[in-house]
Amino acid sequence: MATVLSVSGSPSASSRTNRLLRHLDARLAAQGHEVLPLDVRTIPAEALLGADFRHPAIVEATALLARADGVVIGTPVYKAAYSGVLKALLDLLPQYALTGKTVLPLATGGTTAHVLAIDYALRPVLSSMGARHIVQGWFTLDQDITVGENGSLAVAPGAAEALNQVLDQFSEALGRTPVLAAAG
């Protein structure tokens, strides 16, 4: 199957976004994909904020992206946009780093007023980076994600069903062979 880079754009290790993404990673792995997790918050701030393209953590993130067939990008929504740490990373990646990749954008937030953040804030950036196919993303309300005392994650039934559908679409898109134009 495919190699998937799973990028958590949350600045917090205990965020619902981060936990949801790692929960979905397990489902992708169960479908046979190799999943490579990347938590942007673990990249040193001096590399991200200082735009240090040669920092080993940035070089490693770029190499992970190059290795991946597909990318899942998860972010909390702050002020109707994706997170600043995710923005900092995307700015340091090569201009066409997503060329040939299938991408699944996911977002979480406290209100449905942020539901369009994927389409109006994140999708244009992913498209400009050359993504071959950006599957329909999904926004999940914070209230639909419950973290148990033992760290277990539960997703409300309606949200879980929708997330399973977008994951299946992403997985199916990864299995497709790109159609190349015949040389003329």
From TrEMBL:
Residue ranges annotated for the NADPH-dependent FMN reductase-like domain, each copy included:
3-144
**Pfam family membership, one:** FMN_red
GO-annotated molecular function? FMN reductase [NAD(P)H] activity
List the keywords (alphabetical): Flavoprotein, FMN, Oxidoreductase
- SUPFAM superfamilies noted in UniProt: Flavoproteins
Q: Which GO terms describe its biological process?
A: alkanesulfonate catabolic process
- Under which name does UniProt file this protein? FMN reductase (NADPH)
| Species of origin | Streptomyces fructofermentans
